[in-house]
Design a protein that fits this description.
Distance between the termini: 62 Å
Membrane topology: Multi-pass membrane protein
Radius of gyration: 24 Å
Family: Belongs to the sodium:solute symporter (SSF) (TC 2.A.21) family.
Mean pLDDT: 85
Main location: membrane
Number of helices: 22
Keywords: Membrane, Transmembrane, Transmembrane helix, Transport
CATH topology of the largest domain: Sodium/glucose cotransporter
Number of strands: 2
Low-confidence stretches: 74-108
CATH class of the largest domain: Mainly Alpha
Largest sheet: 2 strands, antiparallel
CATH architecture of the largest domain: Up-down Bundle
InterPro entries: Na/Glc_symporter_sf (IPR038377), Na/solute_symporter (IPR001734), Sodium:Solute_Symporter (IPR050277)
């Protein structure tokens, strides 16, 4: 690979970070007089195109984290021989530094994971993953207007959950949301560290520290709006860089047509067919746990802007994921990567391809990585703070304490990123938890399910996980293996039906447990009414369904709604019924 010199790499990386820091601080200065409400969110302020750029920047980095976990966690170390970094079986680099690049090591990122997916599942896998990653974005365009109509002052999903299902269910969902976003942040830093090592041969830790400092400074000063604005710039940069990189690969890479048929990558596979079901369920439901998406959804000025913005983002994301995944196919068909060579790993197929390209191409990739990483990281930072402020403190904290929270949260993220392989194993359970919880949660969006309460949501969510354990125990004939299936220790891409079965068991089990909880609750309430001599009213139609006012919170009455114009916040004290 025509790798840039150390001096050139440092210049590209740190000048890019410096540009984002200067720009971010400038915007923060311009926003210094914003209210707390504007700091935490930006309801009904954004038009379609900026929304599209934000969803593009956020979604592509989220997919990087997801696919890396699914591919690599639970696998055994694979020796790789990346010419510019790793030279011998001892794992030392040409410069004598310990090599940290191993195919299954956590956090290798999009440039490792997508090409490897192509080398495993071929054209079918690339197309399926691209479609099933991009299409779920449309759920925000569909559900966003519905939730905003019911909860117009909210800016995260947990606020609607609180008003519909009560405090217990809201805290349950908030816990899952905060843990998921925290782990995404840890995974992102781990990915950044290793990809910088692979691209430059340098230790990636200094880049991690600089990125944390840069995003923390401007995010703590500017809040959500600054994250939104920087994502616009970074999203546009990523699109431009993808176009340049695509043209370069098209011109420089030479395809050996004889390798296309022999590679078998154009043929469908069982795994490819399984992914058609697994990926939509895993991605669609897990997106519900990401508050950065919901804050952007509610930031849309109109429902039309939301539909247009998300539609553009879905199409662009589809194209980007297809192009990045195709590099694995091109690396194989150009002879840069030999799947039959035990000393080569599909996880570094992209880098084998880079060896055939000019050194300046690596420079473009470096800028793209920095742009994507900072875009995702500042989005998660602002989303975590907004979610915690709303869910845990009901937005009553002084804005300076909120800013301090942005700074403080970065320390455990960095510490855990250094121990990511052991810590992030628990990330995978969030896929099954979301697949269990979200189906029973969204039933409450329909007025026909007015009798559905928070008890059913919590029991259904936990019951879905129990169902996965039961399925795994039956499938493997071993309770220990059944428990390990909850963590998806073998990832999604195994050679059996265990992962597929888990993602069938989770949502179906969640719904079954939810309706069982409903039966138990109604039975208890019916017996309680008979014993105490009062009327059984658990199935009565709630009054709010007949007293809806356009533009007002659906579930609350007037004395539960409190407006604070000075802070730019509207607080609703209504709590839905849990039991």
């Amino acid at each position: 690979m025509g790798q840039p010199s150390t001096q050139a790499s440092n210049a590209i990386i740190y000048l890019t970070y410096g540009a984002f820091l200067v720009f971010g601080c400038y915007i923060a200065f311009r926003l210094r007089h914003q209210s707390k409400g504007e700091y935490l969110a930006g309801n009904r302020t954004q038009t379609a195109f900026p929304l599209a750029l934000n969803f593009i920047a956020s979604e592509n980095e989220c997919e990087e984290v997801r696919i890396h976990h699914w591919l690599f966690l639970g696998l055994q170390p694979v020796k790789t021989t990346l010419v510019s970094n790793i030279s011998d079986e001892t794992g030392s680099t040409k410069e004598g530094r310990p090599a940290s690049l191993r195919a299954p090591t956590l956090g290798s990122g999009i440039l490792f994971a997508y090409p490897q997916l192509a080398t495993i599942t071929g054209v079918q896998g690339v197309v399926v993953y691209a479609i099933t990653s991009a299409a779920p974005l449309m759920i925000f365009a569909y559900l966003g207007p519905i939730i905003r109509k019911k909860c117009p002052e909210g800016f995260v999903l947990t606020e609607w959950t609180r008003q519909r299902y009560g405090v217990t269910t809201a805290l349950f969902l908030s816990f899952l949301t905060l843990v998921t976003m925290f782990l995404y942040m840890v995974a992102e830093l781990s990915a950044l560290q290793q990809i910088m090592n692979a691209l430059t041969g340098m230790n990636g830790l200094p880049m991690v520290i600089v990125e944390c400092a840069v995003t923390t400074i401007y995010t703590s000063l500017g809040g959500f709006k600054i994250s939104f604005i920087t994502d616009n710039i970074q999203g546009a940069m990523v699109i431009a860089l993808i176009i340049i990189a695509t043209i370069t690969v098209g011109v420089e890479a030479k395809i050996d047509k004889s390798l296309i048929e022999s590679s078998g990558l154009t043929k469908p596979s069982l795994l490819g067919w399984q992914l058609i079901y697994i990926l939509p369920v895993a991605i669609l439901t897990n997106d519900f746990f990401l508050s950065n998406f919901w804050i952007r959804t509610f930031a849309s000025k109109t429902d039309k802007d939301l539909w247009i913005g998300v539609s553009i983002a879905a199409v662009v994301t589809l194209i980007i994921l297809t192009l990045v995944g195709a590099t694995g196919l091109i690396a194989t068909w150009s002879g840069a990567f030999d799947p039959n060579n035990p000393d080569q790993s599909g996880s570094v197929a992209f880098f084998y391809l880079l060896e055939q390209l000019p050194a300046w191409t690596v420079g473009i990739v470096l800028v793209m990585v920095v742009s994507l990483s900072t875009a995702a990281f500042d989005s998660f930072q602002s989303a975590m703070v907004s979610t915690a402020s709303n869910d845990l403190f009901r937005n009553k904290l002084n804005i300076w304490w909120v800013r301090v929270a942005v700074v403080l949260i970065i320390f455990p993220v960095v510490v855990l990123a250094l121990k990511a392989p052991s810590i992030l194993q628990i990330y995978l359970i969030s896929d099954l938890v979301s697949a269990s919880t979200i189906p029973v949660l969204v039933l409450g969006l329909s007025d026909r399910f007015y009798w559905w309460r928070g008890f059913e949501v919590v029991v259904g969510g936990l019951g879905g996980i129990l169902t996965v354990f039961i399925f795994g125990t039956i499938y493997f004939g071993n309770a220990l293996q059944g428990a390990k299936l909850i963590l998806l220790e073998q990832g999604l891409y195994g050679n059996d039906w265990s992962a597929f079965g888990a993602f069938v068991a989770a949502p179906i089990g969640g719904l079954l447990w939810g309706f069982l909880a409903l039966a138990l609750r109604l039975t208890y309430q019916y017996l309680d009414a008979k014993i105490k001599g009062h009327r059984f009213d658990a199935l009565d139609r709630p009054a709010y369904l007949d007293n809806q006012v356009e533009g007002a919170p659906e579930y609350a009455v007037s004395d539960e709604i409190h407006s604070n114009p000075q802070e730019g916040l509207v607080t609703v004290d209504h709590k839905g019924k849990f039991f």
